[in-house]
Design a protein that fits this description.
- This protein has 396 residues and is of the alpha/beta class.
- It is built from 14 helices and nine strands.
- The radius of gyration is 26 Å and the shape is elongated.
- 42% of the residues are buried.
- The structure holds guanosine-5'-triphosphate (GTP).
- Part of the signal recognition particle protein translocation system, which is composed of SRP and FtsY.
């Protein structure tokens, strides 16, 4: 009987031995990483031996997927894609100033309309009502509009001047007060405790979320940071593809699943794990947002965040809102705020709306600053928000 089993036993032993030696070799190769403090943007130059070759189609297989919390050093690395020809993103400094034309054009009614009203020979009750209406039409919100009208009324009464430069300075000061230049709009994207900063990007589909993650990756690359993207919007396969393409253009790898409908928390976990392994500065996770099923969204987002936190702190939760949606955006914001602790707002499509006042309304509603604004479909049409530049663009 033993004589019949021996060949089988030998084959099993040989297979196990090959698997063990193969695993050990992969683990050895993966430890040959760029040392901290080495050259920046290392993804195109310092590759693991089993990374996809530039321009190639090969991506790493992830056998059976990786369950959250079960991934260890021996598990296969997630799929990582990069591309050879890199674009150079536009410098970040002063972007809002460069893009101010778009803001001025779309919000001319607010700025110039207010200036015209305030410059009238006599400002009677009807004019104050028009001013309030202009503010409300720009989506500034009821309370900030009333506050602004009151402040302007007081100043006009006390100063009693209608001199254009003086009126403009007054309007500038009062608008700035409601936009609030004192809010901390810093993006927390610095490595800490030996780990990458983790940025979770949430928002309803169609608000420009994936586009924003792509644009923000460019902002960070322009700031000389090593970035890694996680495509946790697994609901739509094209979303992961779209994200990977954004990353490829600037040499930023994307962790994604090939399986449509894969567990988003699992992809987020893999992305953060990969970010820790390659010693990235920032891992940015794109998520899905389908408000049709509010309870499901809450569960999913909550799980994504908890799963990430098994490995690293979530440093930023950015809520992406479409500025053209007005009150709808406010409702969305309220829903997301119940699920995750939002640390900053990205207001997209400000180039296509006269409702720039939404900046004020949304900040008031959430008590969270607008940190970035989208001002076009171009890859570098995302700007860090600056209260003074914003107000200047509106009233000039
Ligand atoms: N004009 C303008 N268009 C923008 C801006 N940001 C995004 N878009 C456009 O908005 C559309 C939707 O953007 P997506 O990034 O696909 O939206 P999404 O919310 O990620 O949707 P999913 O990929 O399904 O999750 C695209 O056509 C973008 O080019 C912006 O600041 N201004």
């Amino acid at each position: 009987m033993n004589g019949a089993l021996d060949p089988v036993l030998i084959i099993v032993v040989v297979i196990v031995a090959i698997a063990v030696i193969g695993g050990a070799l992969i683990a050895l190769v993966r430890t040959t990483r760029r040392p901290r403090g080495g050259p920046r943007s290392p993804y195109a130059s310092t590759r693991d031996a089993n990374d996809p070759v530039p321009g190639g189609v090969g991506t790493l297989e992830r056998p059976g997927g990786t369950a959250p919390g079960t991934a260890g050093p021996d598990t296969a690395p997630p799929d990582v894609e990069t591309a050879p020809e890199l674009e150079r993103p536009a410098p970040v400094g002063g972007r809002l100033v460069r893009l101010r034309d778009r803001l001025s054009r779309s919000n001319s009614t607010l700025g110039r309309g207010l200036l015209a009203l305030l410059s009238r020979e006599t400002i009677d009750e009807g004019v104050w009502e028009e001013i309030e209406e202009t503010l409300l039409l720009a989506d500034l919100g009821t309370d900030p509009s009333l506050q602004l009208v009151e402040a302007l009324r007081d100043r006009v009464r006390i100063e009693g001047t209608r001199e254009p430069e003086r009126v403009k300075a007054m309007l500038r000061e009062e608008l700035l007060r409601v936009v609030d230049p004192t809010m901390d709009r810093t993006l927390n994207t610095a490595r800490h405790d030996g780990r990458p900063a983790v940025v979770l990007v949430v928002g309803v589909n169609g608000t420009g979320k994936t586009t924003t993650v792509g644009k923000l990756a460019r902002v960070l690359v322009a700031e000389d940071k090593d970035v890694l993207l996680g495509a946790a919007d697994t609901f739509r396969a094209a979303a992961a593809e779209q994200l990977a393409t954004w990353g490829q253009r600037v040499g930023v790898p994307t962790v994604r699943s090939d399986v449509e409908g894969a567990d988003p928390a699992s992809v987020a976990y893999d992305a953060v794990r990969a970010g820790i392994e390659v010693e990235a500065d920032v891992v940015m996770i794109d998520t899905a947002g389908r408000l049709q099923n509010k309870a499901g969204l809450m569960d999913e987002l909550g799980k994504v965040k908890r799963t990430i936190e098994k490995q690293a702190a979530v440093d930023e939760v950015l809520l992406v809102l479409d500025a053209t949606t007005g009150q709808n955006g406010m409702t969305q914001a309220a829903v997301f705020a119940q699920v995750v602790n939002i640390t900053g707002i990205v207001l997209t499509k400000l180039d296509g709306t006269a409702k720039g006042g939404i900046v004020v309304a949304i900040q008031r509603a959430l008590g969270v600053p607008v940190k970035l604004v989208g001002l076009g479909e171009g890859p570098d049409d995302l700007a860090p928000f600056d209260a003074e530049d914003f107000v200047d663009a509106i009233i000039d």
